Amino acid sequence: MRFTNITRVIGLLLALFSLTMLAPLAISVATADGAGGAFLIAFATLLIGGLAVWWPLRRVRRELRLRDGFVIVTVFWVGLGLAGAIPLALAHQPHMSIADAIFESISGLTTTGATVITGIDTLPASILFYRQLLQWLGGLGIIVLAVAILPMLGVGGMQLYRAETPGPMKDAKLTPRITETAKALWYVYLALTAACAAAYLFAGMPLFDAVGHAFSTIAIGGFSTHDASLGYYDSPLIEMVAVVFMFLAGMNFALHFTAFRNRDIRPYLLDSEVRAYAVILLGVSILVCVFLIAHGTYDSAAEAIRHGLFQAVSIGTTTGYTTTAFVHWPGLLPVVLLFASFIGGCAGSTSGGLKVIRVLLLAKQGGREIHRLVHPAAVKPIKLGTRPVPDRIIDAVWGFFAAYVASFAVVMLALLATGMDQVTAFSATGACINNLGPGLGDVAVHYGQIGTTAKLVLSFAMLLGRLEIFTLLVVLTPTFWRG
Fold this sequence. Notes:
Layout (H helix, E strand, L loop, with lengths): L2 H16 L3 H10 L4 H19 L11 H25 L7 H12 L15 H16 L1 H8 L7 H8 L13 H26 L3 H12 L17 H14 L3 H10 L3 H5 L1 H23 L6 H16 L16 H11 L12 H19 L8 E2 L2 E2 L2 H27 L4 H12 L18 H15 L3 H4 L4 H4 L2
Antiparallel strand pairs: 1-2
């Protein structure tokens, strides 16, 4: 383990993160909303602290190992959650405890969208913008951003990239150089964000809200500048814009890059994961809409389809926007939507959940085992499209699934131990570890009513989900630190 190199990189990344305080600081100064001091203190603290760590080690130039990358990503994300909480804890509005500020910061950076804040409509403009910015930066990953724009780090970018990016297949690069790969992903991310903001603006959102919601839509975060989320606007056009861009953001960004570079939509049509992703969302949407119409939940079928489609895509992609109180929908619908978030979007997207490709491979592996019961001597490879999937990846998927289930159980039991009821504990665990946001029971609207211990447990669950379980758990094992 090369601790001097690790420390140098973390210091530089913290100094880089301090720059994110400048935009909300400028907004605070321009609007005189009174929150400027909090952002100024946060900026100075992180910049000076980061440079103080980096400066003595600035001449260290040693290649990072894979284990070093895991340590950097884990330590940085935990530190980032604490650092991001500084302006929230210092601001006079909202008045937040340290635990609440940490929860809100980690929720934003992990693109979970769970909030402890009420009265969002009355928050200072700079705080509103900062919350949305946290989600946008966390969406594709600040580590990937650093790899893209800071090749002067002098470290092995692939180690950071593999530890940071979601999905079971992390070795594929879009370009020969990893810095160019990271840049390509960020170009796609920026382009989608700009297009989403323009679409929201065209649909009738004010400029400030359009930019803020574009940040959280493409990040699949779910934070809003209003307590009522997108339901504040009561606009079918705005909701359909959100549906389109949530669907796009839930797809593998590498496919977006390939399709754009080749000016060809065939990469989408030929990708097994995208097809499964579309079928799952379509199936959930149809089920929800039919059930709402059959139960007469809304006055017309058109209104039922409008709300059903929006919530199915929002929850299924783990975005977490709401236009209506779906937790009060009849029968199985709230639970169906929560279960859809367990699948989430595609690998290589900004969504949470298990990822469609893992669920697809688990289903194919289950089918193969059933086939082997009937034909024990049969050789039946698992394929995605026409390509066989290596057994190493299948083993990794099963290992991830086992770790996911075990982590889910431990977090849920920890919440139950704090006195939380079963429905709230189950849904809060699922909503946070899947980076969804809204749950059921006491966390259907916000998380402000749960205890401090539960908030810290759920903050850990959000980090688990964002870092795909293994990245965080591996550094907690004795084996990792031996040798």
